[in-house]
Amino acid sequence: MQNRITELFKIEFPIIQGGMIWTSGWRLASAVSNAGGLGIIGAGSMYPDVLREHIQKCKKATTKPFGVNIPMLYPDLDKLMDIIIEEDVKIVFTSAGNPKTWTSFLKEKGITVVHVVSSLKFALKAQEAGVDAIVAEGFEAGGHNGRDETTTMVLIPAVKEHIQIPLIAAGGIANGKAMLAAMVLGADGVQVGSRFVASEEASNHMNFKQVVVDAKEGATHLTLKELAPVRLVKNTFYNKVQQAYAEGATTEELKALLGRGRAKKGMFLGDLEDGELEIGQVSALIHDIKPAGEIVNDIMSEFNKRKAELSSL
Questions:
Q1: pLDDT tens-digit series, residues 214-249
Q2: Are 138 and 151 in contact (CB under 8 A)?
Q3: What DSSP string describes 252-267?
Q4: Could you tell me if 47 and 14 are in contact, meaning their C-beta atoms sit under 8 angstroms apart?
Q5: Among 62-66, 132-136, 143-147, which stretch is predicted with the lowest mean pLDDT?
Q6: Residue 166 located in a structural domain
């Protein structure tokens, strides 16, 4: 399948794996890339030396393109960017910050730059900054999210109408049917996050993978907008957050409740009660843990099947 996204990244399928913290290490990234998609190493939960190790291991595990996702709120951002250059990474996804800060620097080094946004306003800013493509992520998505709660079905056509560069849809996409729907709405490709959390190669804890498989409709909620909006599984920690809201907690009190290392505690170490468990609404449609390559193949198989069915109408 060839289109603007496969040509931009030199991949077989327009399926991008989300660069999720505590989940997207070199094993997952290389498995997705080897299956024909674009694997992404999530640098947001990595110290600089750990990122370097994951990049080097990914290079050994695949000869195909892969990228690195860097949240621009990261405290040692300069160090991460130095490693990106030193390790000759060809594709960088930036998120959670102003794309003007690093886009020119990266593109001058010959790097393909993609920025993740949650609104048309920031999509236009990213295009103006000179990025090569945009990920528009609806509020169904897991992890950190947009404050406006714009759904993927509304966001994608709104962004498509106003940009000229390639568009990748994210949020609520875990199968071929959703991929087809996103592309009908105007996307050139899709970014899949939550589905890959429940993959064999994902680096998050097995306890968390099982939570995703067991999740039902309504199991998640977007909260903590005063800090950084995040979609969480409803567990003991989530209940403490809601109780804090009920008691009129200040932003500083919410920050103290969140503390440090809460996501690592839940997603990486497997504490299902006091940890922060970030996952998308689409977890309600995920029922098993599979190899990442099989997930890519399943998505493309269903995409082609549904596309053929629609063509026959």
A1: 999 999 999 999 998 999 999 999 999 999 999 999
A2: yes
A3: HHHHHHH-SSHHIIII
A4: no
A5: 143-147
A6: yes
Structure tokens at 122: 């920031």
Q: How far apart are CA 309 and CA 303, in angstroms?
A: 10
Q: Could you tell me the CA-to-CA distances from 265 to 237, 238, 262, 273, 278 in Å, in that order?
A: 11, 14, 5, 10, 12
- CATH number of the domain encompassing residue 25: 3.20.20.70
Asked whether residue 64 falls in the same domain as residue 123, the answer is yes
User: Is 19 found in the same domain as 112?
Assistant: yes
Residue with tokens 């909260």: 223
Same domain? 225 vs 276: yes
Is 58 within a domain?
yes
Q: 164 and 95, same structural domain?
A: yes
Is 208 a member of any domain?
Answer: no
- Specify the pTM: 0.96
Show the tokens assigned to 101: 């800060």
pLDDT in tens, 280-300: 999 999 999 999 999 999 999
